[in-house]
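To illustrate the input format used throughout this study, we show a single complete record. The first block contains the structure-token representation of the backbone; no residue identities are included at this stage. The design step must infer an amino acid for every position from geometry alone.
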């Protein structure tokens, strides 16, 4: 659908959703962002909802500035998917043992691997440069120098909240692995240190929201943040790559390598910063709850525990800064979800999916999210659908 435009401060607010359906707090956040002195453009995705500092589902293009709180604390959070040659007919009727094996292979919640995963021992993992990647840890913010062991132990772990690992089937019955995770504790700590530092800078003291504090290009603090930011984004990408290899290993051991026939792996961040050029101007584009959807680029847009996931191809719409939504987006807070639904509701709404059905994941109930089909319809000029996946198994932490 064509986007709607709201009057902003310094730039218009381009919205791929009905403004009347966006909560007032989120609209206030968008107006605050649109008035920042460094803003060049603002695009709002159909999964938009209230967040910390900046709304989730927003694409913020700034010149010579970046807001660490707008990126968020889960730097590099995103999605990875891999298609197999397996079909629904290959799977057993009882999928509980498969879920158990996946949960055993990949720690969830706050869990870590007892021994750091050796990527060289993972079949099919094509990641390189591990020595150089870990060597760069010594250059990160001094406050995290003692976290190397924890960061290594959490490499290849899922986390909690809305993070998940799923076994899905597409419309033709082909089996996919899909996962959602980010930079774990190390990304959180790095982000928190930089957010605090930005809020103390003199040029940020008159902002309408302290969580919009920015670093400016040409300063040491900006250089430090960019170094840590891009390292954490790489950590998140590698974390998902290791998890995918571990999950593929579980299925390969059960069905055999030839039968699994793993194909292309798709990966995309949806909480991150990218250096991009629009109109001949170099910009720092922050996608907070949004994926890049450049022309022909593949992306992943999930719904909730039982509403499926879309594999999409970007249409390269520059009015959205080549972006699309990162998912369905929440329609209510976690606290409200716990108060609004019961475990029986969760059981009913996840019928047919092998997953946790207890109070520990009640805030992730499908009813707490926006309707995925409506979100997809609102961005038909941003992406085209490649495949629609439905969940068979869903692994989640607490």
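Output of the design step:
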């Amino acid at each position: 659908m064509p986007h709607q435009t709201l009057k902003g401060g310094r730039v218009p607010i381009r919205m791929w959703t009905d403004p009347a359906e966006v909560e007032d707090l989120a609209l206030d956040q968008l107006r605050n962002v649109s008035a920042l002195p460094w803003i060049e453009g603002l695009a709002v995705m159909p999964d938009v909802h209230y967040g910390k500092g900046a709304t989730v589902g927003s694409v913020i293009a700034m010149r010579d500035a970046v807001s660490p709180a707008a990126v968020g604390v889960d730097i590099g959070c995103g999605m990875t998917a891999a298609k197999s040659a397996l079909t629904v007919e290959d799977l057993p009727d009882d999928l509980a043992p498969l879920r158990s094996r996946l949960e055993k292979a990949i720690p969830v919640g706050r869990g870590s691997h007892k021994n750091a995963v050796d990527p060289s021992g993972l079949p099919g993992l094509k990641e390189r440069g591990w020595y150089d990647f870990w060597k760069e840890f010594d250059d990160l913010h001094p406050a995290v120098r003692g976290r190397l062991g924890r960061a290594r132990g959490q490499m290849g772990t899922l986390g909690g909240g809305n993070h998940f690992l799923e076994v899905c089937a597409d419309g033709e019955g082909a089996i996919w692995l899909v996962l959602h995770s980010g930079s774990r504790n190390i990304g959180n700590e790095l982000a928190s240190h930089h957010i605090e530092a930005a809020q103390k800078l003199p040029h940020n003291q008159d902002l309408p929201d302290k969580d919009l504090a920015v670093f400016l290009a040409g300063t040491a603090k900006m250089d430090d943040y960019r170094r840590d930011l891009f390292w954490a984004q790489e950590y998140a990408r590698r974390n998902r790559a290791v998890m995918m290899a571990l999950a593929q290993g579980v299925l390969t051991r059960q069905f055999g390598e030839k039968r699994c026939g793993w194909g292309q792996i798709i990966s995309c961040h949806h909480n991150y910063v990218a250096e991009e050029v629009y109109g001949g101007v170099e910009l720092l584009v922050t996608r907070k709850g949004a994926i890049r959807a450049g022309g022909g680029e593949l992306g992943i847009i999930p719904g909730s525990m039982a509403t499926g996931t879309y594999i999409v191809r970007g249409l390269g719409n520059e009015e959205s800064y080549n972006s699309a939504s990162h998912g369905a987006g929440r329609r209510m807070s976690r606290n409200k979800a716990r108060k609004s639904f019961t475990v029986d509701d969760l059981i009913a709404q996840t019928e047919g999916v092998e997953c946790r059905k207890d109070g520990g994941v009640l805030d992730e109930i499908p009813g707490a999210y926006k309707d995925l089909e409506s979100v997809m319809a609102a961005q038909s000029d941003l992406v085209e659908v490649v495949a629609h996946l439905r969940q068979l198994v869903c692994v989640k932490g607490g």
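Structural context for interpreting the output: The radius of gyration is 20 Å. The chain has a mean pLDDT of 96.
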